[in-house]
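User: Can you recover a sequence for this backbone? Please restate the input before giving your answer.

Assistant: Of course. Working from this structure:
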């Protein structure tokens, strides 16, 4: 599942909507919407995210968050470490190999480390 797919499903379920009804309203097939929710499709494009925002009448910060989640929801990524340090290449390879065996707690800790590093580099 992707961050966008997880949020999309939560929005649908919070409102008691059937997948097929939502798919019709968004102009996509139920199969596509299900695959998107389960992380079996590439990240949604801007136009689709805008349709979701309008469908759910989402505004401001929640709309920005939904777009951010969409941007982080490509289930098939490629990491290029050419020109980076050997540690960067090792990290990319280890993450690729081991991500499936990490617990939710492990993933949360790694994300915390990455977020802290990003925040330090912004200042």
């Amino acid at each position: 599942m992707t961050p966008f797919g997880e949020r999309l499903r939560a929005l649908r379920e919070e409102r008691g909507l059937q997948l097929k009804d939502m798919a019709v309203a968004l102009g996509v097939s139920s199969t596509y919407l299900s695959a998107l929710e389960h992380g079996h499709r590439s990240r949604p494009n801007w136009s689709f995210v805008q349709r979701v925002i309008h469908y759910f009448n989402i505004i401001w910060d929640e709309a920005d968050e939904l777009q951010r989640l969409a941007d982080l929801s490509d289930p098939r990524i490629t990491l290029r470490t050419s020109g980076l340090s050997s540690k960067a290449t090792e990290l990319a390879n280890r993450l690729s190999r081991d991500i499936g065996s990490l617990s939710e707690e492990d993933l949360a800790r790694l994300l915390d480390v990455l977020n802290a590093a990003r925040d330090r580099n912004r200042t």
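That completes the design. The two ends are 33 Å apart (CA to CA).
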